[in-house]
């Protein structure tokens, strides 16, 4: 049966993240001319032969994860670490580790956390992630990610995780602790559902009571840390394609509106490029406003917050 070609794009500002499926890798290997790339300031296109329709971001994550060694070979990435996940780099000098060029994702097992990781991979960022199982993380992301397994509340573990880190992205509540270890951090980005929890009532308010407490605690810790921060108070996070809708940043919108998880992950990554002098807290949901320049958007939000 003849293949049906599908063109997917990786671009800004309305980013669609993409990693090729296994079938595409095989086709590319046998016939590189079947794939076309066009590099510019904002766009790179890839032709995919695996589907007749545009695949969702979560399907792309599954392709990426299930691809394992084949995808890493396709991308030209190094081999996996040994089975114990160890590397000689762990014993390298402290001086070398203190070069702060990495971004730490506090929950690499979380759905949005994985979306954030893939977005950072596309940006060719050095990534560290807190995970439950280092081996599983290595099988999923290869050497694109430096996984740190263990209890996030363990001071020694957190100190190790933050070594060489310039910024932290927290995709969900309950993973922020021991801010004493944050010395030297340049930026903390927190994706918060606090506005949604505060806007809930009845049974839903009871169900989300613990999550609300954690979200309030996280926001308070971030604000008191002394590290420049960006708190993104998102609307209800939903499974919807990212990059297809606009946004709404009006105060109070998050308690009633919704935001695509893909868009939430994308905003977290875009926030890395704009570090506020002290802190920025804003609400966002999907809406009608198109964002053509995220740096300009964040600059405007910072300006409004200072008024």
UniProtKB/TrEMBL annotation:
Transmembrane segments: none annotated. It holds the Pfam family NAD_binding_10. Signal peptide: none annotated. SUPFAM superfamilies: NAD(P)-binding Rossmann-fold domains. It comes from the Eukaryota. InterPro entries: NAD(P)-bd_dom, NAD(P)-bd_dom_sf. Residues 112-273 form the NAD(P)-binding domain. GO terms for cellular component: chloroplast. This is NAD(P)-binding domain-containing protein. It comes from Nicotiana attenuata. The lineage of its organism: Eukaryota, Viridiplantae, Streptophyta, Embryophyta, Tracheophyta.
């Amino acid at each position: 049966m003849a293949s049906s070609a599908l063109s997917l794009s990786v671009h800004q500002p309305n980013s669609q993240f993409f990693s090729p499926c296994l079938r595409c890798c095989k086709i590319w290997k046998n016939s590189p001319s079947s794939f076309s790339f066009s590099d510019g300031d904002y766009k790179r296109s890839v032709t995919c032969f695996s589907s007749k329709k545009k695949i969702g971001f979560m399907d792309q994550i599954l392709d990426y994860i299930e691809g394992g060694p084949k995808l890493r070979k396709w991308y030209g990435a190094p081999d996996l670490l040994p089975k114990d996940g160890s590397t000689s780099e762990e014993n390298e000098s402290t001086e070398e580790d203190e070069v702060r060029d990495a971004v730490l994702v506090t929950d690499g097992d979380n759905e949005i956390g994985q979306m954030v990781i893939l977005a950072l991979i596309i940006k060719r960022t050095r990534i560290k992630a807190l995970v439950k199982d280092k081996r599983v993380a290595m099988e999923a992301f290869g050497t694109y990610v430096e996984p740190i397994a263990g209890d996030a509340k363990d001071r020694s573990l957190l100190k190790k995780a933050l070594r060489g880190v310039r910024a932290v992205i927290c995709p969900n509540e309950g993973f922020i602790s021991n801010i004493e270890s944050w010395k030297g951090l340049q930026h903390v980005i927190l994706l918060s559902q606090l506005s949604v929890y505060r806007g809930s009532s009845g049974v839903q308010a009871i169900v989300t009571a613990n999550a609300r407490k954690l979200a309030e605690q996280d926001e308070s810790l971030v604000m008191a840390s002394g590290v420049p921060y960006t708190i993104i108070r998102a609307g209800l996070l939903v499974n919807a394609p990212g990059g297809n809708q606009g946004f709404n940043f009006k105060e109070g919108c998050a308690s009633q509106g919704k935001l695509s998880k893909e868009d939430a992950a994308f905003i977290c990554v875009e926030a890395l490029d704009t570090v506020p002098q002290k802190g920025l807290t804003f609400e966002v949901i999907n809406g009608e406003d198109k964002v053509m320049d995220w740096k300009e958007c964040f600059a405007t939000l910072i300006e409004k917050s200072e008024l």
